[in-house]
Amino acid sequence: MAWLITLGLAFGIAFLQTWMKLVSRQPPPGRKHALKKDDLLFWIDWTVTAAVAFAVSLISAIIKNKVPPLETAFGAIGVLVLGLTIMPFGFRLVSYDDHGELKSWWWVLGSNLFALGFLSYAVMTGVKIYA
Fold it and tell me: Angle 100-106-108 (CA atoms, 0-180°, nearest 5)?
């Protein structure tokens, strides 16, 4: 159930972000909208949301004198390191061409799915800590 809630929230937020970008930008001449491929990259938001969720979960556990399982804590730290340091630089190096354009839609899909995994793990970690 937690995974379904995560999916619903992630896609709801992605939809609202896209909607806000769509209606708030003036389209260039000859186009109906000003959206680009980059506007469909939600991995940054989802990774940051996962990082905040991990931090809140671990702080909450400490306040409640709960000790999270060691693998949960190390998993959270690993996701934070990977998602907040390695992924942004790696994404920039492999997914953009020399002109600063995304190489393909597969990079959009792959990066979003990767970050959705982070977010799902963050929710499951929170569930383990609060349960």
Answer: 60
Over residues 42-96, the pLDDT tens digits come to 998 888 888 888 888 878 888 888 877 787 778 778 888 888 999 999 999 999 9
Per-residue model confidence as pLDDT tens digits over 16-49? 999 999 999 999 898 888 888 889 999 988 888 8
Cite the DSSP H helix spans in the chain: 2-24, 43-63, 70-81, 87-95, 105-130
Residues 102 and 36: their CA atoms lie apart, in Å, by 10
pLDDT at 98: 92
Per DSSP, the three-state class of 30 is coil
What are the CB-based long-range contacts (under 8 Å, 24+) for 53-62? Answer: 53/119, 53/122, 53/123, 53/125, 53/126, 54/79, 54/80, 54/122, 54/125, 56/126, 57/122, 57/125, 57/126, 57/129, 57/130, 58/129, 60/129, 60/130, 61/129
Give the tens place of pLDDT for each residue, 118-131.
888 888 777 777 66
Is residue 64 classed as helix, strand or coil in its secondary structure? coil
